[in-house]
Amino acid sequence: MIKLIVGNKGSGKTKALINMVNSAATTSKGNVVCIEKGLKLTYDIDHKARLIDSEHYSIKGFENLYGFITGILAGNYDITDLFVDSTLKIGSNDLTKFAEVATKLEPLAEENNVVVTFTLSCAKEELPESVKKFCIEY
User: Fold this and answer.
1) Can you give the C-alpha Rg of the chain in angstroms?
2) Phi and psi dihedrals of 60, rounded to 5?
3) Average pLDDT over residues 50-61
């Protein structure tokens, strides 16, 4: 399953993500992973969740992000939840390319019973139609 936390800067997306990560870390019977740009969430995320700095692995662009996520899922069969904060800063500001990646990830997430949640700093109206169905309220 793919979920999108969408809103303009300052709308509370990261706070919602932190709450979701911590909740998943508490209740999940598997592993919870959070990918972020930089280390700003280090003290906010429950220690049970694995926090990955995208800059440390030089992840730039949506194709690199897609490859990184699929590699994580391929190497760890017990991941239940995967979160990506600051998605457009890691990938690019190209929402069409993001939509392509999200669409490619959807069947993989379903097949592996993983919930993949992204934060996107933009208005919901800016999203391509193909990914609007993934938006959640927070």
Assistant:
1) 14
2) -140, 120
3) 94
